From TrEMBL:
Species this protein is from: Daucus carota subsp. sativus
Enzyme class: transferase
Pathway(s) served: Secondary metabolite biosynthesis; terpenoid biosynthesis
GO MF term (any one): UDP-glucosyltransferase activity
Annotated family: Belongs to the UDP-glycosyltransferase family.
Record protein name field: Glycosyltransferase
Domain of life (superkingdom): Eukaryota
Listed SUPFAM superfamilies: UDP-Glycosyltransferase/glycogen phosphorylase
Gene3D superfamilies found in the cross-reference section: Glycogen Phosphorylase B (3.40.50.2000)
TM segment ranges: none
Domain Glycosyltransferase N-terminal: 11-246
Keywords tagged on the record: Glycosyltransferase, Isoprene biosynthesis, Transferase
The keyword Membrane belongs to this UniProt entry's keyword annotation: no
Length: 485
């Protein structure tokens, strides 16, 4: 394969600081390195760079650069993981980033070819303009979720309805695409333009529209509506280059090698132990449960979920954290679950509870995993659907509620069980939805079809590039051509 570009051309990438954004940025950097002959630098805070270095292979030529950043200067705890703290920390990177870009330009005698920044880091457009660099925005989410998220934050349409149940059309979406105020996270529901969320997202998302074009972590074929709405909204070139998953996940003929810990986080259980546990169950029989890297549910919800799981009779693996209101890193207390729940599940081998970081890719790629109860973060959604694993939705924040809506209404590959921390679910709801999703052949068939589309789009079949590979090459060509004008 002929690689476009030359190593004198330099791309600098800067992800938003949440784990769910850093992982796809890292995969994008590796994909770019594979397809283009360019120098690539990824910058972030020292803690994130240290974690990435711990997972970097010897052959990986991506430069990792820590921006001088002291969390105590910005009143942030060192392991800040709440959305508010991450937003604050992201904007605090502006000054050191600008300094780094100026230094790079003077050292290399010319500015870098482009900055690829997260859509949440719209401020890089200011730096880019000042230093005459092209800015590209990258949405680590899907097209539908990205378009809906932008539509809500920039228009705040929920202000114009009278009740939480009154339906309204998302600005920019077709008339049939309706939501209610009750769909929205309470953080968004109370937004009126003067709140902290609006003050961060409105300028950052608007500034991202000043980019040369957008990269989106999806396959065009799986969400045609979302891609169309996003194109209409941005009026910019959109390159759908996803999903940015490890190549082995996209290749049906690949070996069963262990993925292990990609994030450099403290593992709750080794991937080998999980795989062995899964080996003892029949195909599609195990439910996997995880709410991603930042979220958890309320104590009452956790109790009902546990009871529903036990009564459903299905084997499960649950990546479990302390419930809402408690420190996510504190020791797990027995009182958060039904009496002797963990003991019973462990003795009967019915349920495996993972208290720290779970080897999610190894779990989802195992043939015994039959459904994923997920917060519908985009990485989790793509990891699941790429393996044809249907979803049970429990969106909690960000654009997850729109992902969950698309999964159920547009794709037909899952059913929503609950929404947010307020849903009063009972153990019977849990049992009912598990049964619908795990026993329904139609849902499983559709999930397999989506898996096929993802693999086709991201792969190379009979010498013909899939749409995502083609989009990646088109992106690099457009960038090089623009730099020569
Ligand atoms: N993840 C994991 N183990 C865990 C929790 C999360 O490997 O115990 C990974 C998961 O595979 C995914 C990412 O963390 O790649 C979570 O990203 P997502 O977009 O789903 O959700 P977020 O954490 O951003 O809310």
């Amino acid at each position: 394969m002929e690689r476009l570009g030359n190593p004198q051309e330099h791309i600098v990438m800067i992800p938003f600081l949440a784990q769910g954004h850093i992982i796809p940025f890292w995969e994008l950097a590796k994909k770019l390195q594979e397809r283009a002959n360019l120098s690539i630098t990824l910058v972030s805070t020292p803690l994130n760079i240290q974690k990435l270095k711990s997972t970097q292979s010897n052959t990986c030529k991506i430069h990792l650069v820590s921006l001088p950043f002291n969390s105590s200067d910005h009143n942030l705890p060192p392991n800040a993981e709440t959305t508010e703290a991450l937003c604050l920390a992201s904007t605090a990177l502006q000054t050191p980033f600008q300094q780094l870009m100026s230094n790079l330009a003077s050292k290399q005698g010319k500015p870098p070819l482009c900055i690829i920044s997260d859509v949440f880091m719209g401020w890089t457009n200011r730096v880019a303009k000042l230093l005459h660099i092209t800015n590209i925005s990258f949405s680590t989410c899907g097209a539908y979720g990205t378009a809906a998220y932008h539509s809500v934050w920039l228009n705040l349409p929920h202000r114009f309805v009278k009740s939480d149940d009154e339906e309204f059309v998302l600005p920019g979406f077709p008339e049939t695409c309706k939501i209610t105020r009750a769909h929205l996270h309470k953080y968004v529901r109370s937004a009126d333009g003067s709140d902290q969320g609006s003050k961060f997202f409105q300028p950052q998302l608007s500034l991202s529209l000043g980019s040369f074009g957008w990269l989106c972590n999806t396959v065009e074929e799986i969400e045609p509506l979302g891609v169309q709405v996003l194109k209409n909204y941005t009026k910019l070139p959109i390159w759908c280059i996803g999903p940015l998953l490890p190549p082995r996940m996209l290749d049906s003929s690949s070996s069963n090698e262990i993925f292990g810990n990609r994030a450099g986080k403290e593992p709750g259980l080794s991937a080998e132990t999980c795989v062995q546990w899964l080996d003892s169950y029949p195909e599609n029989s195990v439910l996997y449960i995880s709410f991603g890297s930042q979220n958890t549910i309320s104590p009452a919800q956790m109790m009902e979920l546990a009871k529903g799981l036990e009564e459903s009779g299905k084997p499960f693996i649950w990546a479990i954290r302390p419930p809402m209101g408690f420190n996510l890193t504190e020791k797990f207390r027995d009182e958060w679950l039904p009496h002797k729940f963990e003991e019973r599940m462990s003795a009967s081998k019915r349920g495996l509870l993972i208290h720290k970081w779970a080897p999610q890719l190894d779990i989802l790629c195992h043939k015994s995993t039959g459904a994923f109860l997920s917060h519908c973060g985009w990485n989790s959604t793509m990891e699941s659907l790429s393996q044809g694993v249907p979803l049970i939705g429990w969106p909690l924040g960000g654009e997850q509620v729109y992902n969950s809506k698309m999964i159920e209404e547009e794709m037909g590959v899952g059913v929503e069980l609950a929404r947010g921390l307020e849903s009063c679910i009972t153990k019977n709801d849990v049992k009912r939805v598990i049964e619908i999703v795990m026993e329904n052949e139609g849902i499983r068939r559709k999930a397999s079809e989506i898996s096929e589309m993802i693999k086709q789009g991201a792969g190379q079949n009979n010498g013909k590039k899939g749409s995502s590979l083609q989009a990646m090459d088109d992106f690099v060509s457009a960038l090089l051509a623009y730099s020569r004008t």
